[in-house]
Design brief:
three-stranded antiparallel sheet; 2 domains; Rossmann fold; about 375 residues; elongated
Length: about 375
């Protein structure tokens, strides 16, 4: 396949999730991404999950297909070498989540290379520190998650993931501008801004401003529409979502409950026609559907829901998923040093129907000699 970003060099001075994910996203599309690490390796090289021998599967996953150099960023000499790597040669992009080193800032580097693109992740817009789980706490979502009285942070670091993709989008927009004008850009994204923007774009913050009611926790129900989890006769658990009237009528046909809900609607003088109706009356809907699931084994549930094109899936563990990876077209086997052979994902993005294969993450400093200018005598 054609690597869409072939020829784009990205120097990544980063750690943890958002900025490495930005680099991974670009590497999977063919960019040459060079991860700069402190001597001995970045702190996230020991982050869980780990393989049985202690290799960070987290680090390996987020750094596939990159090259790695090792440098002492507390050393002015080594920072100069990094700056030379960035400013010499073809136009470059810097991706970072730190402002600790003024000599690697946009202002300093762009004075030598006006075509430099510099992409920076902040915690908050004022430059103060934040990470995904503190951002979660401060932006309302944990107070709506779960069912009990206590706030529940999501296990998925969603704001890190979203921020990493925003960084990539901003970077590629700046690269397009550079192609048109020859000029570089400073791109900044704050993790908290990503969460606040999402809460605003989805209407959560607008609802809080314009209405008098307060959102409450709803567990596995879906706010404003009908969705719920059910247990089958043989103990499997599935999630169903009924967004449209067509979904609703097909679900009733599948379960044989059309007449029961017609009678219920007539007796109580209520409607189940719209999303809002079904959400308001979910306490009436769920017990009747639950009875069908409780009396039906999973294989029959799966066959019936699929035949009627219901939105559904079975709850699966990561172990369940891992067993199915060899047959999934997103995955290809790689041999990661320190971890071993396993099935790793390609980019979710297809290019003309295909995707670049995944390649292992680099070892500590693997490409230092090849890429980094030698120290000054």
């Amino acid at each position: 396949m054609t690597a869409l970003l072939a020829g784009l060099r990205v120097v990544e001075l980063s750690a943890y999730i958002a900025t490495p994910l930005c680099g991974l996203t670009l590497a999977q599309l063919g960019a040459d991404v060079i991860r700069v690490e402190p001597v001995g390796g970045a702190p996230d090289r020991t982050r869980w999950p780990l393989s049985d021998n202690g290799t960070s599967l987290y680090w390996s996953g987020l750094n596939k297909g990159k090259r790695a150099i090792e440098a002492d960023l507390e050393s002015g000499s080594d920072r100069h070498r990094i700056a030379t790597l960035i400013t010499d040669g073809a136009p470059c992009v810097v991706v970072t989540n730190t402002t600790r080193h003024p000599d690697l800032s946009y202002e300093t580097l762009s004075a030598q290379r006006p075509d430099l693109i510099h992409v920076l992740l902040d915690g908050k817009a004022d430059g103060s520190a934040a990470v995904d789980y503190t951002v979660q706490a401060g932006t309302g979502f944990p107070l709506l998650t779960g069912t009990g009285p206590d706030p529940v942070n999501h296990v998925l670091p969603a704001w890190d993931v979203c921020a990493g993709l925003y960084l990539a989008v901003g970077l590629l927009a700046a690269e397009r501008h550079r192609q048109e004008t020859g000029k570089g850009q400073s791109i900044r994204v704050a993790l908290e801004d990503v969460a606040l923007a999402t809460a605003g774009n989805l209407g959560y913050l607008t609802e809080a401003q314009l209405t008098t009611h307060a959102r409450t926790k709803s567990g596995n129900d879906i706010y404003g529409t009908y969705g719920h989890d059910f247990e089958t006769a043989d103990g499997e658990r599935v999630m169903i979502v009924l967004l449209t009237e067509r979904h609703w009528t097909k679900m009733l046909t599948a379960t044989g409950l059309t007449g029961a809900f017609a009678a219920l609607s007539k007796t109580l003088g209520i409607s189940f026609t719209t999303e809002s109706d079904r959400y308001r009356h979910r306490d009436l809907i769920t017990p009747l559907l639950a009875r069908w699931f409780e009396q039906t084994p999973y294989h029959e549930v799966a066959k019936t829901l699929t035949a009627h094109r219901i939105l559904w899936d079975r709850y699966r563990s990561f172990t369940d998923l891992a067993h199915a990876l060899p047959t999934h077209p997103l995955f290809e086997e790689i041999d990661q040093p320190g971890a071993g052979k396993h099935w790793a994902p390609k980019s979710p993005i297809h290019t003309n129907g295909t995707r670049l294969p995944p390649t292992p993450a680099p070892t500590i400093g693997e490409h230092t000699t090849e890429l980094l200018p030698p120290p000054s005598p």
